[in-house]
Amino acid sequence: MNTAIFIRKVITGEGAVNGLADLMDKYQPKKVMLFADPIIVQVGAAKKIESILEAKGVQYQIYSDIKPEPLVEHGDMAVKAVRDYGAELVIGIGGGSCLDLAKVAACLVKNEGSIADYLNLTGKKKLTNPGVIKILLPTTAGTGAEVTFNAVFSLGNTKDIISDENILADVAIVDPEFTYTLPPRVTAGSGIDALTHALEAFTSKGGTELTDTLAIEAVRKISRNITTATWNGTDIKARGEMVWGSLIASLSYFNAGVHAVHALAYPLGGLFHISHGESNAVLLPYIFDYIWPSCIQKMVLIAEAMDLPCDGKSEREIALMVVQHLHNLIKDTGLPVTIQDYGIKASDLDRIAQDATEQKRLLGRCPRMLKLEDIRKVYQAAYDGKLSE
Fold first, then answer.
1. CATH code for the domain in which residue 326 is found
2. pLDDT digits (tens, 9 = 90+) for 131-176
3. How far is CA 37 from the centre of its chain?
């Protein structure tokens, strides 16, 4: 028996943000806390939301003290802000870190304790109350935070998450218009993050026929459009395909689970403050270069989804072709292809390998068991920039 969990409502399409007006009529909040990335406020992208709230006579306060890869204390500050303002509804607009803070703050305002009390690796408490209404609007096509109940926090040397159904948003508004002005590097990093979600969900031990169907379609959409979306942000079709690909990849990985790429990426974000998307991107080809023998039939299906030339090739050749294509995609979108490019030294590899072994929940879903020595080999390959021949 398999179980799948999905968000209650998703509003999609160009102009979907206008659906917020009906939601204000439905929930009738007196006070709203609007979480918004600082750049979103700076460029005026939150004005549409503000105008809807003002037209409905809803009081609101903007919270933009949002840091990339937020620390636990940043999360506690966000909870306090919602509680002090007395918000009855929380709206989040921005990237993954912003949406994670918004949904956690909206939830914990009705629960006791700190963010630290609910972390996956070290927390002792369980959330018992969903908190106040949560509405999330992503501005990147990548993290999937709007439709998942995971929230990631930095612990200094690594990362941990809060994962609980009570965090799940009440409504996600996925409007591709918010992605049209994303710069190339953000488009690339968030897009490869979404592709990683799809690839890991498709090869996860927790996958099902349902999650596989979503994941492989996400691979198709993202892999065929990410380069165009990165370098020609005005291509509305490519942007739209990236948004849809990110959304269905998120619905897939949310249920199937991600595995080794995320496990090994967490220490890069925690220790070296590399963004989540780029931490995944720089490791993606090297992880799949190491694990493909354990999921070779699925590698063939991935190649077909990516529209790679498979005729006359053996399964091994196809799997290695996929690995090389992933490397090329990352390079073609302008992202670094070795961890050396981020200033990581050879002397750091033992430490980050040891830290990665702590991500047992993620590593347990990987189709190939990765022990400390395996993880160290993957990091070495990512350091050297060397793939199998």
1. 1.20.1090.10
2. 999 999 999 998 889 999 989 898 877 788 899 999 999 999 999 9
3. 16
